[in-house]
Please model this.
Amino acid sequence: MNKVILMGRLTRDPEVRYTQTNNTLVASFSLAVNRRFVRQGEERQADFINIVAWSKLGEFCSKYFKKGQQVAIIGRIQTRTWDDENGVKRYVTEVVAEEAYFADSKRDGVSDGTSFENTFGTTATSANPEFTVASDDDLPF
Model:
């Protein structure tokens, strides 16, 4: 079984590109994921995990995820290889997102007790790319 669950902060805004063959949208970004344990006298360490999200989920991530925002990603680990322009073989390991969730406990950097999740819903999955809103009164526009 190949399943990954990560929660961390975006290190940059998602970058969007389109495949050359069939013009499919792909968003890529990186998550800073804190390690669980801290050694005494040291600062908490983080791992920087590359994430790719395809099609509707990629569109959602590129539209609503911003640098510094805490998100949760469920997906699978994938490795790829290619030859660069100098003929050197390159390797990359990344997480292919299958689900994406808001995980911030505050909205727009203001801690007012209102959860971002409660305002905009919690999920945009590849099966259901639309997010839910609790009521029309919660819409920001």
